[in-house]
Amino acid sequence: MADEFRFVALRAFARPPRLLVVVPSDGTEWVRWAAAGLGALSRVWGGCAGAVVPASVVDHPALVDVMRRMQPDHVLEYAPSGATVEGIRPGAVDRVTGSLEGEARRHAEAFVREEPWHHGGVPDAEQAAAGLRERLGVNAIREATQETHLFDDPAKMGLTALTDVATRPVLGVPFSLVSTPSALAYAARVGVDLEAAAADSRVPDEARWQEGVTQRAGTALLDWLHPSSPQDTLAMLDPAAARCTRLERDRFRAEPVVVLGDRPEDFALAQLAGLVHGPCMWLPWPDPNAMTITGRFPHWRGTGLIRVTSASMPLEDVEARMRTMWDRRPRAFVNGKEVDDKAFECVPVNELRTSGQSLYVHDQAWDLPRSLPATVLPDGSLEAALGLPAEVPPGLDAARDKWQVLLVASDHPLPPHRVLTGDALYTGRSNFWETFVRAADGGITYSSHRFDFVPQGASLAGTLAAPRLRWPSLQAVLAMAAAPHPVQPSAAGKRTAVAQRLLGSRTALEDLADGPGWDLLKTFLPGQQHPGQPEDAWWALKTSVVMSFRALVATPVVPEWDTKQRRAQVDEWTRQGVLRRGLALGCQECPAFEFYPLEEVAQHYRCRRCGAVNELVQARWKTDTSEPEWSYELHPAVAELIDNNADVPLLATQYLRQQARGVRPLVGAEFEILRDGEPFVEIDFALAGADEIWLGEAKKTSALGDGHRDTKRELCKLLDGCRTVAAHRLILATAAPEWNTATTTVARRELHGLRTAGKYAPDIYLLTAVGSSAPALELLTPAQG
């Protein structure tokens, strides 16, 4: 069979690398270490897209999911210079050079201050960074790791310095001033300058830092700290300073988040939430007021809600603090009645939900149309025949700067799964050492420069990466994710694959399940004939039910199809193979009547039961008419789909696909995951979108199982299947108006137990009234206590 070729429509983006920086965590000094890490991040091009996490909280349950959703390109250990360590621990450099004197001591001090610190006494973040790198599956191919450390001096890094790209002066908060959580909260907004000196007379008090956190103008406090700075100065973490812009993809509006608490995990959560969820404000002081939030988010009293959360405080403490804040607000009255326009909700961190993605991209090199010729593999994967030509974004220098290339296929999204990296995304003819490739942001991203051997004096095309890429199908993604456990289509999945092949696509099969044609075809099942059908217009043969066109015309469907529409639809189904046209003929030697497709009908035919040769004469056809009447038989695979209520998973995926914003997700049919050679769970459907994998179970009834024990067993198998492929959502779909209490109770308790124990637990969504005019999708909340 010849390979199928097509052109893949792509959108290309150039963007700075996203950095997740792990800094030392040392008791009360964590604020200073975090500020130092921010200072190093502020010097890198694209620091606005990065975050700093203290080593002590990299495994904190509140941060695990949001770090995954950040999708960092590099997880780096912060390696401070001696000067930075001296700023945190005065006398550290002197203790290293104390045995030297005179000129030797001066040279040694200068060297120690400039170079990364290697003299002990600094808490080690290397193990925390390595573990996080392994968990997220980033910046590594096989045994090679691209970047591992972030230094104070950009010249010592393989990354682009902000000053090499910026066209305007940039400033940050002097490092020496950042010693409290409130100061750190503001510094995280604008950046930290490791070398700037602060005038003692201008050292802000806590109230001034808090004002800087809550005000909208990002440079007002910087102007006060740096009164002689040029008027066009930008903050170091301002995207405009780095030739970047922030895109909100597939979001209707911004959904602000407020983080309370003064612990390291709150600091990390606020940065990550700002990158993942939307505008975020960290309030580390204990007495915020209503004006604090309205100053930063002026539309707070509008239609949207502000989610308030904390990584260190119980939800009841968060609610109490917000209630106190609300009670102190200025009262507003309309027509003598007080207006209570509270627009915040307190939520646990693991219940923060935001649709779509945020993305920092080069402001002149994003959403550019591209296309590549690709081979379509038998499993639906796409392999590009060519690499994209090398291009340098405006304002960057290919000999000095590095950037990330992002390619998003318009009809083939990829979730950012940890297995989708390196070999999984290269074609068989590619060199996987060329660059670092992985799935991110719904597409494929790779480093702009070649990682393998580049000869001296190479041309621009010779230094920049142009890999030939592979977009795996959902079937391939699930197989890689479940390894070493095999994945195979279930019996229902094989029938669905046949029906999709006949109709042309999964979408066409979903449309069939959603239209009157499904009910019309249902009458081909034994015992499903309609009373209005003439008795001589259909026959229940031994192997199937066959019908004449007269029977199909007499079958009521909603919406009503007239005869002309039915004629056209039957012809289309016959052309596709969903229906087979032929004759119901008997045998002169045995009493069996069988259906013979049109291509098998001739003047002489052989009986399928006894093998006797028959003449095509009036005595052989079913009716007494002078000429035989065409009969139709339903394809067995389609008949079995209809008989097994396959319309429920089909209508469920149709609804879920329609709810997705932007690129429609890939959809897969029923499959099984094997363990020790035997299937241990069957999944009714799967979806892969731009940021997650969803698995689903579909039922005609409202019960997942018979009784509590059976329900729990079925749910645990589904959860085990989700864990095996690292799915992020489990969809429980039913055609009933709602799931029964037994199912929801078991699901809530299991979810609560898993999360309390710190184990893997996907979000569980309940999809009800599938196939009706008003299906509903609801997030299941865990049981309390």
Q: Could you explain the architecture of this structure?
A:
- The protein is α/β, with parallel strands linked by helices and 785 residues long.
- It is 30% helix and 22% strand.
- It has 24 helices and 41 strands.
- The strands form twelve sheets. The protein has a seven-stranded antiparallel β-sheet, with no helix packed on it. It has a six-stranded mixed β-sheet with strand order 34-37-38-39-40-41, with helices on both faces.
- Helix 23 (707-725) links the parallel strand 38 (693-699) and strand 39.
- Helix 1 (30-42) packs parallel to helix 8.
- The chain starts with a strand and ends in a 6-residue tail after the last strand.
Q: What would you call the shape?
A: elongated
Question: How many β-strand stretches?
Answer: 41
Instruction: Report the mean per-residue pLDDT as an integer.
Output: 88
The number of helical elements comes to 24
- Proportion in β-strands: 15-25%
Instruction: Specify the biggest β-sheet.
Output: 7 strands, antiparallel
Major β-sheet strand ordering: 23-24-22-1-20-21-25
* Distance between the ends: 59 Å
Poorly predicted runs: none
User: Which quaternary structure do these chains form?
Assistant: single chain
Structural class: alpha/beta
Topology overview:
Blueprint: E1 4-15, E2 19-23, H1 30-42, E3 51-54, H2 61-70, E4 74-79, H3 82-88, H4 92-97, H5 102-114, H6 126-136, E5 140-141, E6 144-145, E7 149-151, H7 162-165, E8 170-171, E9 173-174, H8 181-190, E10 192-193, H9 206-214, H10 220-225, E11 234-235, E12 244-249, E13 257-260, H11 264-276, E14 280-283, H12 290-296, E15 306-309, H13 315-327, E16 333-334, E17 337-338, E18 344-346, E19 357-362, E20 368-376, E21 382-384, E22 404-409, E23 437-440, E24 443-447, H14 460-463, E25 470-471, H15 474-482, E26 487-489, H16 491-503, H17 506-514, H18 516-522, E27 538-540, E28 545-548, H19 549-553, H20 563-576, E29 579-585, E30 594-597, E31 604-606, E32 613-615, E33 631-634, H21 636-643, H22 647-659, E34 666-668, E35 671-675, E36 678-683, E37 685-688, E38 693-699, H23 707-725, E39 729-734, H24 741-756, E40 763-768, E41 776-779
Parallel strand pairs: 2-3, 2-4, 4-7, 8-11, 9-10, 13-14, 13-15, 15-18, 38-39, 39-40
Antiparallel strand pairs: 1-20, 1-22, 5-6, 12-19, 16-17, 20-21, 21-25, 22-24, 23-24, 26-35, 27-28, 28-33, 29-30, 29-33, 31-32, 34-37, 35-36, 37-38, 40-41
